[in-house]
Amino acid sequence: MGAVAKLKNARSREEWAGAIATAWNKQVDGIFETGMLLESAKSELPHGEWLKLIEAELPFTRTTASRLVQISEDGRLRNDAHVHHLPVAWGTKYDTCVAFARVFEMLRMG
Predict the structure, then answer these.
(1) Which residue has the higher pLDDT, 99 or 59?
(2) What residue spans of the chain are helical by DSSP H?
(3) Which of 3, 10, 35, 52 could make an S-S bridge to 68, C-beta 3.0–4.6 Å?
(4) pLDDT band for position 8 (50/70/90)?
(5) What is the mean pLDDT of residues 65-86?
(6) What is the pLDDT of residue 10?
(7) Cβ atoms within 10 A of the Cβ of 19, count?
């Protein structure tokens, strides 16, 4: 295989970095948005419909839905100063959320 020819209208390294970072951050934003949408749906749907929504129409379990809501509600995880340091995987974000809660509870209790 030969060298890849450069296109005259090719993006710069900075443009590629911006496009790739934007796509990557959609994952992070999507986790928070999914949790907020789940929370809104739970408050707006009639009693029992939220579970039916999850069980019949969403690609994850009730446990996952509850964890996504918990992630979206945690202000420490949503803090703009920290969000870019967080892992992308929602499960790891949930573990971080639980760990934060335990540490803050221990500090509160002395």
Answers:
(1) 59
(2) 13-44, 49-57, 62-73, 75-78, 80-83, 90-109
(3) 35
(4) low
(5) 76
(6) 80
(7) 11
Q: Can you read off the two tokens belonging to residue 28?
A: 């992070």
d(C-alpha 56, C-alpha 19), whole Å: 35
The pLDDT of 99-110, averaged and rounded, is 70
Rounded CA-CA distance 13/19 in Å is 10
Q: Is 85 strand, coil or helix?
A: coil
Two tokens at 16? 């590629």
Whole-angstrom distance, CA of residue 94 vs CA of residue 100 = 10
- Quick one: tokens of 64? 């996952």
Q: What does the block give as tokens for 25? A: 């951050």
